[in-house]
Amino acid sequence: MNGERKLRAGLIGLGAMGRNHARVLSGLAGVELVAVVDPMGDSTGTLRVPVVPTVTELIALGIDYAVIACPTALHEEVGLELAANGVCALIEKPLAPSIEAARRLVDAFESAGLVAGVGHIERYNPALQSLRSRLEAGELGEVFQVVTRRQGPFPHRIADVGVVMDLATHDIDLTSWVTGQSYVSVSAHTVFRSGRPHEDMVAAVGQLADGSMVNHLVNWLSPLKERSTVITGEKGCFVADTLTADLTFYANGAITTEWEALRSFRGVAEGDMIRFAIPKREPLLVEHERFRDAVEGKPSDIVTLRQGLRTVEVASAVLRSARSKSTMQLPATT
């Protein structure tokens, strides 16, 4: 850990996610939470650090990095001010509401030589981290399909983006990250049921660079909260529940059945089912530890702004596909 002094960190935004960031930053080893920015102040009176109204005032206090947890529409403005003042930034997902804004953020932080990352927290979910390492080890063989389901009640705190940018960006990022493959095409359908200007339900089908198929079903109109990732391949399928951080493997069976009717009904024979025992550390804490290490110049696995930009590109293609009722092709990643 940094022996000379603690890193000085700031937080911008005190919404539901911002308060989670404040909790983790307040106890993060090697880091001092200096102040928080929120024009509304600290409505609960629980913070032990000053709450200032502007980013400019936060920067004046002298900080090494800031966590941007304000509404997505403000990410570009806040991020550009931090970059212009030499402050590293961890930006909540999505990186920005548009491809153009995301690119400007990438350019600003890269040209300033600053560490910057995107808070795609699912990468730090224990179930998905274990799944990724098992896929890399070839435990599934060739991947055929990735299916995600992410649904739950309507979050009244979200007002500036729809379900694609708010929720589906989780699935887009985790799918590329877990498989190591980029999207090459997407086709989607959205619906508007809550009376808001943004979509609240999406069904998307896509293809990855290796030819595998992806399906995403995302909504915030369901009383059932579900966070499921199912990856099917030549040796069986993995099921990750990121709400409980459980990972289960269903193997293709090696034993055939003589019962002809049952064999034709089941298709691939059922084999062993294994639920893996994995350490379950809080993903948000792991995300902060990784970003702290990166700011200190240590080797660390963070979600780069360029990766965040790619997720915004895919999400934008999903929205364009739904509007145009056509399949969108995506350029190859560099």
TrEMBL record:
SUPFAM superfamilies in the cross-refs: Glyceraldehyde-3-phosphate dehydrogenase-like, C-terminal domain, NAD(P)-binding Rossmann-fold domains
Gfo/Idh/MocA-like oxidoreductase N-terminal domain segment(s): 8-120
GO molecular function: nucleotide binding
InterPro entries xrefs: Gfo/Idh/MocA-like_OxRdtase_N, Gfo/Idh/MocA_Oxidoreductases, GFO_IDH_MocA-like_dom, NAD(P)-bd_dom_sf
Domain GFO/IDH/MocA-like oxidoreductase residues, every copy: 129-238
Gene3D superfamilies: Dihydrodipicolinate Reductase, domain 2, NAD(P)-binding Rossmann-like Domain
PANTHER family: BILIVERDIN REDUCTASE A
UniProt-recorded name of the protein: Dehydrogenase
Species this protein is from: Catellatospora methionotrophica
Phylogenetic lineage: Bacteria, Bacillati, Actinomycetota, Actinomycetes, Micromonosporales
